[in-house]
Amino acid sequence: MKLRNFHRVLAFCLGVAMTLPAAAAPLAYAANERGAFGWAMDAGSRGATERLAMQRCGGTANGCKIVMSKNGDCMAAIESRGTPSHPGYWYWVGYTTAVNAYARSSELQRVRGLVYHWCTGVGAGPPFNTCRSVHSDCASYIRNLN
Q1: What pLDDT, in 10s, does the model give residues 66-91?
Q2: Residue 145 resides in a domain
Q3: Does the residue 3 lie in any domain?
Q4: Residue 127, preceding peptide bond in cis (omega within 30° of 0)
C-alpha cells in the first residue's frame, strides 16, 4: 500500500516538473544600423549581459547600441536587407518567457515565429521576402526533455 502511494506521488511530482515555467535570465541585443549584432544571455547581471552584447557587436566605436535588454528565457533576431532598388536595413529582436522549461525546441520555434511575424508583417520595409534569422537561443536551463 505504501509503495503504491509513493508511485502516485512520484508520478504527480514528475508531471508537475515537466510543465513548470522557467525562471527569467538577463537577455540583451546590441546592434548598429549596418548589420552588426551582438547578443548575450545570463552573463551574471543585467549590466554584464549588456556589456557582453555591446562587445560582441563591436562597441560604440562600431555604432552599436543596446536595442533590447529584458529578463526572459529565449531570444531571437531577424533582419531584412534592402536591394539596390529598395535600399535599407531593418531588424527585429524579441524575447519570450518559456511556457515549458523542458521543451527547448518548441520554445525556440515560438520566439523565432514571434520575431519573424514582425518582419513579414505590415510596416516592414521592402523587400518583404528577405527576412532571415540572425540569432536565436534559449537560456541553458531550457532543456529538451519532451
Answers
A1: 999 999 999 999 998 877 887 788 89
A2: no
A3: no
A4: yes
